[in-house]
Amino acid sequence: MSKNIVLLVGSGDVSEADLACWSSRADKIVAADGGANLLTLNKYSIDCVIGDLDSITNDVKAVISPDKIMFIDNQDNTDLEKCLERIEAKVIVGLGFFGDRLDHNLANQSILVRYASKAVILLDRVDMMFVCPPKLWLDVPKHTNVSFYPLGPLQASSKGLQWSLTGLNLCPIKQISTSNKAMGAIEVTSGNNQLLTIMPKTHIHQVVAQYLSGHFKTWEC
Q: Are the C-beta atoms of residues 93 and 121 closer than 8 Å to each other?
């Protein structure tokens, strides 16, 4: 499947407002296994269900056309990974991939970096998370919270942040840059694909627009 925007819905916590917003903007709606339960309950049309089907209910499975179900019998990777392996889109907006399970949250951070060749943006009820592209530029209000969390050693440079990244040796067990703030427009150049960006999801439309226009590049992995 190859479209501009794909909405990917998991079985975790999902904001009804986000679901309504992105279902109307997406070219396709894909459920990651149990995400089909929520979509069906709220009467959203599903283009495809991908996963090992251990979370989708039998009642929901019965009302989805079999040709829209992609069963992947593999316990070695998560449903999010199964989906990202098979979805081709300019932007993938993911809902329902954060929640009560801290181990799932950590796994999803690693998966974002593993699939940094794709523009994937995961949302919770407040923030969004995505891999910092090779060059990030955003025009945001002064004092906007923006965090950068490295999943491996890297160097980066920045303009417009309260605490500059330039000259730092970022590393998850030493120097990180969470709870940073924008002083207005920000520009960040990352040395590799392992730098996560976390900021309020109110700015997601700007990020999506930059990916769709080609101004943000994804990583070659």
A: yes
